[in-house]
Structures are given as structure tokens and as C-alpha cells.
Amino acid sequence: MEHAEVLTRYVGHFVDELAASGLSDVVISPGSRSTPLAMSFVHHSDIKEWILIDERSAAFFALGIAKETKRPVALVCTSGTAAANYFPALVEAYYSRIPLIVLTADRPHELRDVGAPQAIEQIKMFGDYVKWFHEMALPEATDSMLNYVRRAASRAVQTAKQDVCGPVHLNFPFREPLVPDFTLDNIWGERFERNFSPYYNGKKQLSDSELKTLIHYVKKERGILVVGPQTDERLAAAMIQLAEHWHMPILADPLSQLRTGEHRKSHIIEGYDAFLRDEMIREQLKPDFIIRFGAMPISKAYLFYLQENKDIPQFIVEPYSGYREPAGNPTHMIYSDPVYFCNQLINIPRALENDTTWLNKWQKMNEITKHHLKTDISNDLTEGNATRTVMEELPNDSILFVGNSMAIRDVDTFLLTNSKSIRVLANRGANGIDGVVSSSMGAATSRRRVTLLIGDLSFYHDLNGLLAAKHYHLDITIVLMNNNGGGIFSFLPQSQDSKHFELLFGTPLHIDFKHAVQMYGGTYCIPETIGSLREELNKSYKRTGLTVIEVQTNRKDNSIWHRNKWRAIHEDILNTGW
Questions:
Q1: Boundaries of each Thiamine pyrophosphate enzyme TPP-binding domain copy (predicted)?
Q2: CATH 3.40.50.970 fits 3-173, yes or no
């Protein structure tokens, strides 16, 4: 059998098994050594290819697709530093538990470590940031080797998506010539009934004896349910039922998927970040126990609240495994399906389940906070007012993608409960400002309208991501909060150092983004009032393609505005007599 046929069948069986295992999307960055993989993916009718030149952007784009679809997405690149550009996105995928299948082409073994061009050490190059690494064998087309590549493909998909999801890495050494021969018969081989190695993964739940150990803690009066960043769409209904049954507040992070939707929301407390900033209020809300679902909430005020209550029992529910407790408090880790766990708790009798005093206190503070957040007679475009306007104008059945630093914190403040179907996504695994534009573009491949709220530094960091909108005609509205630098640092102690602040932290860009947006074929505008922002948002949602709405603000004024708003909330709450 000639080399071209061996190569074609070997790679063809691998790609076909990925499809059989449920893979439907691959993001390819062009290169020579990856030719067998790239061409085979494009030739396969069951897999949609996305071509992005910049590997760094491509990896974050794949991350966005996987976030939205909750399915593994493959990445393909050539040898050398191309693969190194994947690293930031793989770190994010690892910490945010997103399934990616990284397929790097490589020089064959005889061309490694001999000075051959575009050859670097790719073995386990991503270290512990992948769940599984495998160096693929050189192509052969014997029955045993074709079974081998199918097994590797099936295992890659399974490993990426089972239990705690994450990226896997397979490295493919290829000898030249590299072009497959698609004139051959039956290049995909014979599929098995489903896939090569199907697996069955049941849900975890606590035993009766384990539940009994919790009764002592959860029978107390002042319990809190907390839902951090998570994407399980089943959880909202189960959490609401538990909270209503036990008369407990739910502190819902903006990425919890609980603030929006058709479920009941009377027990959801979304304003906690604002009122927990006050130490006196935190003292009045000392809990008896906390049960948390999902990752750690974004709110720094909630972190202070935890750190001041190290003595109270805390339970963290994880569906499989993992340890996410940055406060350093003593913690009971509960490894159980969150919905099963909620249902089990509902059946535990509580003598105080008819007492609503504790819940009412949280609800009243939340209502006071929401009143202040909704009320502002000014038509000025502060970052807070602008974010609130964006939250109000989000279309139903759409995606809100949020940048880090100030953007996600303003969404935490101004995303109030509503009945719209809004999926809220962000790259909060490593919390970096890189790759956010590309990830939002990946989410937009679902063809649901995407609104990206992002700061100017993060937008600048990933301008290459705009190419996907132009190339694939993606419908996305980007609200660019431009305070000419790093606005988040104005809230930190560094802001008091007038000598070094602007150079090291403020880092103004002084960039006219209009030219970059027009280069990628987008519509660009700068509204000057809340009314014009609202108008431009609604215009953007009626047009196709890329729209960038730049909101220009002042970092110092923004800091003062936020602090005044928090102060008014705290004074109003404390004046109620608590």
C-alpha cells in the first residue's frame, strides 16, 4: 500500500470516529504539516469546519463554541509555535471546565531536535492543563492500526467531556508527502453501531447515611443558598423549589443562569454585591450555614463576607470532583449531582421551615438596592447607566457574553432578575482579558444574537477576533466601554499612587477604534446619551453582522459614581433600623 493511501485511511478513520463520537465542529488554522488532518476534516460531511488564521484567536473561538454548545470542539494546527499560541485558551478551558480536543501536527521523530525548521518540543507541551496527552503513532493502515486510531479518537472525545470537562491533546507526527488521496474508495472505513468505545456515566448522589450527617447543620434557621458561575440549565427549577420549601435566600451570581428566565424569582437575591460591601450590613447578616453550587461567585464583597464568617459551616456541591474554595475556609465538599442533591434536601424536615424572618431581611435589603440601581435621573453615559441600559435592552432568546475586569462587575451589579431567556457567558476560568472577542464570536456561531460587553483594553487585546464576524457573517453587537485604560484599577489601592498609576495601571491607549471596526466590515457608532445608546442598541439588533457601539467614559468619574451609588444604598439600608 502506497504512502498516500496509508495516510488517507489512517487519518480518515480518526476523523470519522470523532464524528461518530459526537464531534460536529473543528477550528482549523492553516499550515503545511497539518494538511492530512485539515483536508480530511473539510472533506467529512458530518463536521463543520471554521478556518481562522491566528491560532490564538482560533483557540478562544473554539472555546466559545464549546461553551455555547456544551460539546467538545476540535482544534487543528501545524507544527512549531503555532501550537504554543493555543496555550492561553487551553488554560482558560482547563479552569472553566470546557471540552476541547487539540490536534497538533508534528515533524516525524527523525526530524526532531536536529535543527529542522518549524520543529519544537511538542510532547506534553501543555503540561497539566490537559486531561490527557497522547503521542499518536506514525500512520499505518493495518486493521489493528485503524482500530487504534478509532480508539484514540473515541477516547479523546470521552475524556474531554466526561466528569469534569476539559481539554485533551493528541500530537500527530506526519512524514511527507502530506496530501491525502480522496479518490480512494471507503476512506472513512466501517463505523461501529455507535462509536468505537461507548461509555456510560451515571449521576452521583449522597447515600442516606451521608445525608444524615448534614441534618444537624441544615436544621438551623439562617441558611444561605449560593449559586456561582455554572451552566446546568436544570438547576434553576431545583434551586427555586428548595429555597421556597426552606424559606431561604439564593445569592445568584450573574453567570449562575438564575437571574433570567421564566422560573420564579422571589427568593433570588441579585443585589448582594452592592449591600455586602458595607461591614455593618455584613455583621447583621451572619449565617448559620452556606450551601454553594457552581464556582466561586465573582463578587469581592461576597468573598469578604465569607472570610469574616470562617466559623460557620460551608458546603460546596460539585457534580463530580474538584476543589474550588479560594476563601480558605473549612469546607464540606459534597460530590453529587446538584439537582439530585436539591431534591434530597427538600425531603429533610426542618422545624423552622415556616419562619420567614431571615428571608425577609435579605429580600428587603435587595429591594432597597434594586430601587437605587434602577433610579437615576441623569441621561449621562456613565458606565453604570450604560450597563443598566444594555441589560434592559437585551433581546429575548439571546446570549450575553461579558468581558472581565469592570465589565463583569458592572453586570453583577446591573443584571436584575427578569423573565427573558438570556444565556450569560464569560471566560471566568482564569479571568484573563485575552481572547474574549474571539470567544464571543464562537458563541455567535449558534446563530443566536450575541451581545458582548467589553472594556477597551480587552477589546484591543483581541482585535484579531473580529475577523470571524466578517468571514462568517456572525450577528453580534459589541458594546465597547472605553475609559481609555484599565478602569478596574481605579477601585484598587494602586489608584492612590499618583506618580506611577497612569504608567503602570491606567495604561491609556489613545486609540480610535473606528478604523479597526471598519477594516473588518462592521458598523460603528458613539452614542452620547442614554437615549441614543438605547436607540443604537435596538438598531443593531435589527441588522445583521458586526456592530460596535463605543461608550466613552472617564475612569475617575466612573469610580466616584459607583462609590456614591454604594454609599446611598448602605445608608438607606442602615436607616431602616437593622
A1: 437-551
A2: yes
